[in-house]
Amino acid sequence: MLTVDTGALTNGSAPAAQTARPTATRTPLLGRLVSPLPANEIHLQFQRVTHIAYMQVLILTAVIYAVYVLTRVSIDVPGVTGVLAGLHVLNLACIRVARSASRLPLKIWTHTVVSVLLMTGLIHYLGATEANMMTILYVVVMLNSQILLSTMGFFVHANLAAGAYCALLLLEQMHVVPAPRLFVVEVAPPFWSFIMAAATTASLNLVAMSSASFGRVLRERSDQLTARTRELAQANASLVEKAVALEERQEELRSFVYSVTHDLKNPVNAILLTTDLVLDREGHVLTAAGRDDLDSVAKMAATTDDMIRDLLGFFRITSSVEAPSPVDLNELVEETRATLRTVLQAKRIDVDVGALPVVWGQRSKLACVLANLLSNGAKYVSAGRGRLRITASMAGEGEVVLVVEDNGIGIAKRYHAGVFELFRRVPDDEQMVDGATAGGTGVGLALVKRIIEAHRGSVWVESEPGAGSRFYVRLPHGGTLEAHHDA
Length: 487
Hints:
Elements: H1 6-10, H2 16-19, H3 29-32, H4 39-71, H5 77-97, H6 104-125, H7 136-144, H8 151-173, H9 190-282, H10 288-319, E1 325-328, H11 329-339, H12 341-346, E2 350-353, E3 358-361, H13 363-379, E4 387-394, E5 399-406, E6 432-433, E7 436-437, H14 444-454, E8 458-463, E9 469-476, H15 481-486
Parallel strand pairs: 2-4
Antiparallel strand pairs: 1-3, 4-5, 5-9, 6-7, 8-9
Helix pairs in contact: 4-5, 5-6, 6-7, 6-8, 7-9, 8-9, 9-10, 10-14, 11-13, 13-14
């Protein structure tokens, strides 16, 4: 049997299960007539609109009085002056209240309604019932507020202006208000007034349709821009986090490399010292084979020490941070020649330098590139007959190719790619210079490649055994080659 709680019915209260009904929040009418943009964006646009409207009123005032002075058109000067003063006061007041973001819909519609009423008064005093073109003043007000209103708000605004204009025509036809005349014609007959009212209403609604469409596009673009800006901000924040993490990893790697190289150098140095001590102390009793073995150990230890030193320099240079700037290769080559002067003079090497451009890059690292290429060329040329040539040429848009050429022993084609890899060298029996093997650790050209690729450039070699070598470096161009020719 179904039982009913009569007490609950008598007291007029529903059961607890029925009292917790969700209530839908209703947007106030003025809120629905305002643009759906975010509140902060509407606030910003309202501030902008009030300033634009005030500038328009200043221009309108200047135009009206200029026309009056120049043509002496018969207008109601006190009435026009009073309406213009009202427009000035309205916009100045709105500029002041627009500083606060509170109650924005009320402020926007107060500005809109009062502007329409004042423009109607101005149209009346300018005799617009005779010159219907003055209704363009309504359009100006509508265009100002198109970004502030929703689609429904556009049409409410348009029909508010149309209604005000129709009321003005009716009051003039009924002679409730006097009809100022700009021309020598009487007030339009009722039928013509009706035609003007209908045409104005239709025109303002067409403007509202266009403004609504344009305003919707603007809001969509604004929403897209806001979303894109938010995405970019998030991406930038993510990049910053990744950059910080990468810097931390690089610092860890830098510390690791320094620690490893330091730990490796100690036993290598101990090997060198031990072999030297053994040779000094026991050399006279060692056999020739024993001394040769100790000499080999010392040479290998010395080579290992050089490799550790060069590897440490390789990592130190490639991991250092330097801001890019325009780099004059002429100055850089002269500094490199000064650094290598002892080697160049000892082997009596001629160095020919052509006109070099300005490139864009990290100066200290590019100096390291030139030092390695020139010292590499000097190492593989014969004493007394060596020649180095440094030239540059333009290649494509915004790029320059630097060429370092020597007349040394050359490199077989099968080694062209390998010489740019770390610790990869041409076999000793294929790099004999003046009867001796050219030394090296296989780090210099690998460092050149790493630096140039970090500059978004490229490096390669063209060479044949006995025909010398030409090392090409492609870099971003940072100046004009012709300027250096003129110099």
